[in-house]
Amino acid sequence: xxxxxxxxxxxxxxxxxxxxxxxxxxxxxxxxxxxxxxxxxxxxxxxxxxxxxxxxxxxxxxxxxxxxxxxxxxxxxxxxxxxxxxxxxxxxxxxxxxxxxxxxxxxxxxxxxxxxxxxxxxxxxxxxxxxxxxxxxxxxxxxxxxxxxxxxxxxxxxxxxxxxxxxxxxxxxxxxxxxxxxxxxxxxxxxxxxxxxxx
Length: 199
Prior knowledge:
The chain is of the alpha/beta class. The chain has 2 domains: 1-26 and 110-199, P-loop containing nucleotide triphosphate hydrolases (Rossmann fold, 3-Layer(aba) Sandwich); 34-107, P-loop containing nucleotide triphosphate hydrolases (Rossmann fold, 3-Layer(aba) Sandwich). The chain is 57% helix and 12% strand. The protein is built from 10 helices and 5 strands. It has helices at residues 14-24, 31-38, 44-53, 66-73, 77-105, 118-122, 137-146, 152-161, 165-170, 182-198; strands at residues 3-8, 27-30, 111-114, 129-134, 174-177. A 5-stranded parallel sheet has the order 2-3-1-4-5, sandwiched between helices. The chain is globular. The relative contact order is 0.21.
């Protein structure tokens, strides 16, 4: 019952890897989706965010105004730490519940936690394997601009706001190089799956 962490910088191909692992039968738990769930209207997390950062971070429809909140925490380490102190424990608890449920349903299943902020928040958890999706920063910048339509400066700021690639690579048990073709990436994921199932 391996528990695998899958991480990588923005536009590193993490989602492609997760989809392929799901095709092989892995249960994928998506950290970004969990963040959205624990911050949904009516949740204790959203109430605490509003208490901490002001009612103006809640949109008219009751959802979190991510842009308004982002403006309050971007470049403000203390404010970001306060936000993480609210959100991370809730995401940790919900992700653990999902892991436990998956293993209860099938003790032999492979659970993959797709988590962008592994280095920042969850690196010391008891993972059986840490997989890093990696493409050089200039290639990820190109993808953000050409494929996602981001402005060059905004894309660079997003990359610069994340931990350096070297820190992610330093914790990797396996690296999937996503800088080449899609076929090449999928071949590496297939080989990784064989390695996982052989353990």
